[in-house]
Design goal:
There is one protein chain. The chain has a single domain (about 15-180), classed as VC0467-like (3-Layer(aba) Sandwich), CATH 3.40.1740. Strands 1, 2, 3, 4, 5, 6, 7, 8 and 9 form a nine-stranded mixed sheet that branches. About 10% of the residues lie in helices and about 35% in strands. It is mainly beta. The longest helix is centred in the C-terminal third of the chain and has 7 residues, at about 125-135.
Length: about 180
């Protein structure tokens, strides 16, 4: 039996982790942050598929502000993959509090926490709820590990695991493991 919704519950700010049941190759071993969710549908961003390039390297805009040149670009999902969407992610007061603001104009304000997404993950009315009852997704709390740069290679494995002790140990882990 899959995830069961409470009356009026929305998944905004939660994370969907693709289970092995989900056969769609667009979502194989993905971790998706849900930015919007209502009765009309949902919108999220794949957090563990960095493109490996910055906004400055992929855009043809000659007037791109210097502060946005180094914004990392991710494959956000299969919907509108040729469009760029921008979101600012912020850490909350504890490690399991990650907030997202979809930006209509990324040039306003600071570039701190901004990620660019080629496309997004989208669900129509009732589609996500159906996929959850089919156990295609595991719903979990977010974690600041989603915001690491570079993206931890074992991010999906950590989130899909039943053993979530890593969340408590995370602050003790070295940040630059390549230097060990």
């Amino acid at each position: 039996m899959g995830y069961e919704f409470s009356a009026g519950e929305a998944l905004i700010g939660k994370v969907l982790v693709a289970t092995p049941v989900l056969l769609d190759p667009n979502f194989h071993q993905t971790v998706v942050y849900i930015a919007e969710h209502s009765a009309a549908g949902a919108l999220g961003f794949v957090m563990n598929r960095p493109l490996g390039q910055t906004l400055g390297a992929v855009t043809k805009a000659t007037d791109l502000p210097a502060g946005l040149q180094d914004v990392p670009v991710f494959i956000g999902g299969p919907v509108k993959p040729n469009s760029l969407l921008f979101a600012r992610f912020r850490r909350g007061p504890h490690d399991e509090d990650v907030r997202c603001e979809i930006l209509t104009d990324p040039t306003k304000g600071t570039s701190a926490g901004i990620r660019a997404f080629a496309g997004y993950s989208g669900w129509g009315e009732g589609q996500l709820e159906r996929e959850l009852t089919e156990e295609s997704w595991k719903v979990v709390a977010p974690h600041v590990a989603l915001l690491e740069d570079p993206v931890p290679p074992a991010l999906w494995a950590a989130f899909i695991s039943e053993d979530q002790r890593w969340r408590k140990l995370y602050p003790l882990l070295p940040k630059a493991t390549g230097l060990n």
